[in-house]
Design brief:
This protein is an alpha/beta fold and about 725 residues long. The protein folds into three domains: about 300 residues, Thiamin diphosphate (ThDP)-binding fold, Pyr/PP domains (Rossmann fold); about 210 residues, Thiamin diphosphate (ThDP)-binding fold, Pyr/PP domains (Rossmann fold); about 130 residues, Rossmann fold. The strands form seven sheets. Strands 3-4-5-9-8 form a five-stranded parallel sheet, sandwiched between helices. The chain has a five-stranded mixed sheet with strand order 18-20-19-22-23, sandwiched between helices. Helix 5 runs parallel beside helix 6, helix 14 runs parallel beside helix 20 and helix 16 packs parallel to helix 17. The longest helix is centred in the first third of the chain and has 26 residues. Bound molecules: thiamine diphosphate and magnesium ion. The site of magnesium ion (MG) has 6 residues, from strand 6.
C-alpha cells in the first residue's frame, strides 16, 4: 500500500533546482526526506500567510500547525487516506496536507469562502474535514473527538464482520485504523478517558496521538495533570504506550511504522505521546510572550522541528544551504499562489446560513393517517401500549436494516455466554428486551456507565454510515452527554456544509408523575434541546405515534432525540394496534387529539391525557393538540386551531420559566394576535425540582385540576 504522503497530489515539487533525491539518510529515503521537508515548509508558510491575511482583515482567525509538522509528516508516512479514518486536531495541518488536502483548500477555509470544502466558510481555519480522505469533520471542543473516533473504529469492525449483509453506504477495509489526535491539555477531558476505556475493552484499532507542546493556551502541562500523559495511561490494559521526540523527524520516522503496524495487526489501541514545540502563540487571539519566558522561547526555536530537520539535512549532505533557501522560497511562492486563488473565491451567500441544518425525511400525507396505521385490518398485529410499541418497532428496525445497532446501559438481555440459560433484562424499562437474543450481541450491547461514551460512539458510527440507536437510561443523566449531543451530533451536517451527517436515534426515557421518582428520575426539560439547531426532538404520547415517529427517525439522516415518557410506557390509554408497515409520523406534525371550538390546548407527552381529562372535567368544548414533535413543531396546526377557537392554553411538564410553553406562547402572541380573544396562557411545572414524596411531586407537576382551572379562567376572560 502506498503511504499517505502525496496521495492526493496536493503538494508536489516544482523546484527547478536539482536537490539530491537518491539514497538513504538515517534510515529514511532521501526523496522522502526532501518531500516531507517541502511539505513542512508549505505547512509553515500557510501559517504565516494566514497570519498575514488576518492582519489584512481578509482572514478572521488563525491557529497554527507550527512545531507539529515533523511529527505529522512522519505519521502520514504510515497511514493511508483511502483506508484509514482520521479525527485530527487543529494543529494537524501538515498531516491533512500530506493526506491530500491542498493549500488552496485550507486557505479557502481561512478566508471563509463558500467553496471551502471542509465547511463552506462556516468553521474557523484548521477545522478539517474531507470525505475524499476519510477526514471526519472536526469540531472545536478539545477532546470531544475521541469518543466519535472510537465509535468509528468499532463501526469499521462491525462493517467488516457484516459485509455479506450488504450494509448500504458503508465500507471498511481489513487492517484499517482510526487516528485521533489531541494536545496534552485536552487529555484532561473526561471524554478522552472514556474513549480509552472502550478502545481498550474492545481492543480497537485506534491510534491516539498526544502532541505535547507543553501548553494549553497559557497553562503549562505541569499545572494540567500530576504526571505526563504517557505515565498516566500506563495502567490501561491493552494500550501500547509510546514516548517519542516529535521534534525529531528521524526519531518519529523510525518509531511510528512499528506502532502503526501493531495497531493494524489487531494488537489493540496505541497511544503515542510526542513532544513538539509551539513557536507561535496559541492562536491569533493570544500573545505567548505574556506568559512564556524569553529563554524558553529561544530554546524552543532551536528545537523547532523544521530547524532540527534542516540541520540534519545539512549535516548529512542531503541539501545545501542554497537548496534549503530555494525550497523555502518555493513553498512561499506556492502558498502565495494558493492565497490568490482563495481570495478570488466567492463569499457565502447570507441567505444560505440555515442550509444543512436538517434534512427531514419526506412522509406523504396519506402515509401518516390513522387509516394508514390501520391499513390491512391488522388483526395479526398486537394491541400494545407505548413501551411495547417501541420495543416491537426496534425489532422491526433491526430486522429490516442491518445497519441498526442498539446500545446503552443495561440494554442487553444477558451475558452472551449465559443467554440461553437466563430470561434476560433488556433495559431498565424492558424496552430493548429480546433484541440481543434475536439479533446477536454485536447488534444490541451494553456500554460502560458513561453517557458521553454512549452518544459519542454513536456519532462515530453514524459517520461510517451505520444507524446507531443509543439509549441514555434516564433523561436526568443526559447532561454528561450534552457535549456529544449539542456540539457533535447536532452540528455535524451544518459544520461540514452537508458533507457529513449524523443519522442517530437517541432514545431517552423522560418525565415524572411517578410518585417516588424524585429529582433524578422525574426531570423534563425538552426546551433545552429544542434550543439546539440541528437536532430533532420528539415525544410521542401514544403507541401508534411512537412507532410512526421511530420509523421516521430511522429513515432520516439526522440526530433525533426520541423521548419516551416513563409514566406512559404501560398506560392503557396509550394503547393502539401496532401500525401497518408504511405508516409514519412526519416530524413537525401535531395531532388533534380532541376537536373543540372555544379553546385550544397545546401540549405533548404526559400532559396530553391530563389535558383531555381536564377538558372533560370542566365540561368545556376545548380542542387538544398533541404536538408529538417538539423540534420542529407544528406552528400551522396551532395557528389554524387558534384561528377557530380564539383562545390558547399551553400545557407542559417543563418548568414554566423558559419551558417549551414559553416558545409556543411567544410565537402565538406574534402570529395569532388578530385571532386571540384572550391572553395566551400557560400551565407548567412549579419552577422547582421534583420531590420524592408524592404530595410534593403533585404540587410540582401540572395536574388535571390546574389545567381545568387555567382553561376556565381563559374562557371567563
Ligand atoms: C472543551 C473546550 N474547552 C476550552 C476550549 C478553548 N481552548 C481551545 S484550545 C485550548 C488549549 C488546548 O491545549 P492542548 O490540548 O494542549 O492543545 P494545543 O493547543 O497545545 O496544541 C483551549 C483551552 C475548547 N476549545 N474546548
Ligand atoms: Mg498543548
Amino acid at each position: 500500500m502506498p503511504s499517505a504522503v502525496g496521495a492526493g497530489g496536493a503538494v508536489t515539487s516544482t523546484s527547478s533546482r536539482a536537490v539530491r533525491t537518491k539514497g538513504r539518510f538515517r534510515g529514511v529515503a532521501v526523496a522522502e526526506i526532501i518531500a516531507d521537508y517541502r511539505m513542512a515548509l508549505v505547512s509553515r508558510a500557510l501559517d504565516d500567510r494566514e497570519i498575514t491575511l488576518q492582519k489584512q482583515s481578509r482572514g478572521f482567525f488563525h491557529i497554527s500547525g507550527a512545531g507539529h509538522e515533523a511529527l505529522c509528516l512522519a505519521i502520514a508516512r504510515s497511514v493511508q487516506p483511502s483506508r484509514d479514518w482520521f479525527f485530527p486536531y487543529y494543529r494537524d495541518r501538515a498531516l491533512v496536507l500530506a493526506l491530500g488536502v491542498t493549500p488552496t483548500e485550507l486557505l479557502l477555509q481561512a478566508v471563509g469562502a463558500s467553496t471551502d470544502p471542509a465547511s463552506g466558510g462556516r468553521q474557523m481555519p484548521s477545522h478539517f474535514g474531507d470525505r475524499r480522505f476519510n477526514i471526519v469533520t472536526q469540531s472545536s471542543p478539545t477532546g470531544s473527538q475521541c469518543l466519535p473516533a472510537v465509535g468509528c473504529a468499532e463501526a469499521g469492525r462491525y462493517i467488516l464482520g457484516h459485509a455479506e449483509e450488504g450494509l448500504e453506504g458503508c465500507s471498511a477495509q481489513p487492517g484499517e485504523l482510526t487516528y485521533v489526535s489531541l494536545g496534552e491539555g485536552a487529555t484532561s477531558q473526561g471524554e478522552f478517558w472514556e474513549s480509552l476505556n472502550t478502545a481498550c475493552s474492545l481492543r480497537l484499532p485506534v491510534l491516539y496521538l498526544v502532541a505535547d507542546n507543553g501548553y494549553a493556551i497559557s497553562v503549562p502541562s505541569w499545572q494540567q495533570s500530576p504526571a505526563p500523559i504517557s505515565d498516566l495511561v500506563k495502567g490501561f490494559p491493552g494500550l501500547a504506550v509510546h514516548r517519542l521526540d516529535g521534534r525529531d523527524y528521524f526519531e518519529a520516522r523510525k518509531k511510528i511504522p512499528g506502532i502503526v503496524a501493531a495497531v493494524r495487526a489487531g494488537e489493540g489501541p496505541a497511544l503515542v505521546h510526542a513532544s513538539v514545540t509551539r513557536p507561535y502563540s496559541h492562536s491569533s487571539a493570544d500573545t505567548q510572550s505574556k506568559y512564556r519566558p524569553r529563554a524558553e522561547l529561544e530554546d524552543e526555536a532551536w528545537n523547532d522541528p523544521i530547524a532540527v530537520l534542516e540541520r540534519a539535512m545539512l549535516e548529512g549532505g542531503v541539501a545545501s544551504p542554497e537548496d534549503l533557501a530555494a525550497m523555502r522560497e518555493e513553498a512561499r511562492r506556492l502558498v502565495a499562489e494558493a492565497a490568490k486563488e482563495a481570495l478570488a473565491a466567492p463569499r457565502p451567500d447570507p441567505s444560505t446560513v440555515r442550509d444543512h441544518l436538517l434534512e427531514l425525511p419526506v412522509v406523504a400525507a396519506e402515509q401518516s393517517t390513522d387509516a394508514a396505521a390501520g391499513a390491512d385490518g391488522g388483526a395479526d398485529r398486537p394491541v400494545v401500549a407505548l413501551g411495547e410499541a417501541i420495543r416491537l418497532a426496534l425489532h422491526e428496525a433491526m430486522e429490516t436494516d442491518p445497519r441498526v445497532r442498539v446500545f446503552g446501559e443495561d440494554v442487553a438481555d444477558a451475558p452472551p455466554e449465559l443467554i440461553d440459560e437466563l430470561e434476560g433484562k433488556g433495559g431498565v424499562f424492558g424496552t430493548t428486551f429480546g433484541l440481543q437474543r434475536r439479533f446477536g450481541h454485536d447488534r444490541c450491547y451494553n456500554t460502560p456507565l458513561a453517557e458521553a461514551n454512549i452518544v459519542g460512539r454513536a456519532v462515530g458510527q453514524a459517520a461510517r454510515g451505520l444507524r446507531p440507536v443509543p439509549e441514555v437510561q434516564f433523561f436526568d443523566y443526559i447532561w454528561t452527554a450534552m457535549q456529544q449531543i449539542k456540539s457533535e451530533a447536532a452540528t455535524v451536517r451544518w459544520r461540514s456544509a452537508g458533507q457529513w451527517s449524523c443519522p442517530m436515534v437517541l432514545r431517552v426515557p423522560i418525565g415524572g408523575y411517578l410518585a417516588g421518582g424524585a429529582i433524578w428520575h422525574s426531570q423534563s426539560g425538552v426546551s433545552i434541546f429544542a434550543h439546539v439547531p440541528g437536532l430533532v426532538v420528539v415525544m410521542p404520547s401514544r403507541a401508534v405515534d411512537a412507532v410512526g415517529l421511530l420509523r421516521s427517525a430511522l429513515a432520516g439522516e439526522d440526530p433525533v432525540l426520541f423521548l419516551e415518557h416513563k409514566h406512559l410506557l404501560r398506560q392503557r390509554y396509550t394503547e393502539g394496534r401496532f401500525p401497518a408497515p408504511g405508516f409514519m409520523v412526519p416530524f413537525g406534525k401535531g395531532r388533534v387529539v380532541r376537536p373543540g371550538a372555544e379553546l385550544t390546548i397545546v401540549t405533548y407527552g404526559a400532559t396530553v391525557e391530563r389535558s383531555v381529562k381536564a377538558v372533560q372535567q370542566a365540561g368545556i368544548d376545548a380542542e387538544v393538540v398533541d404536538l408529538r414533535s417538539i423540534a420542529p413543531w407544528d406552528r400551522d396546526l396551532v395557528g389554524e386551531s387558534v384561528s377557530r377557537t380564539g383562545r390558547l392554553l399551553v400545557v407542559t411538564e417543563d418548568n414554566l420559566t423558559c419551558g417549551f410553553g414559553a416558545e409556543v406562547a411567544a410565537w402565538a402572541s406574534e402570529h395569532c394576535f388578530g385571532d386571540l380573544d384572550a391572553p395566551v396562557s400557560r400551565v407548567g411545572a412549579a419552577d422547582t425540582h421534583v420531590a420524592y414524596e408524592p404530595t410534593l411531586e403533585r404540587a410540582t407537576l401540572p395536574q388535571v385540576d390546574d389545567i381545568a382551572a387555567a382553561a376556565g379562567s381563559l374562557l371567563a376572560f
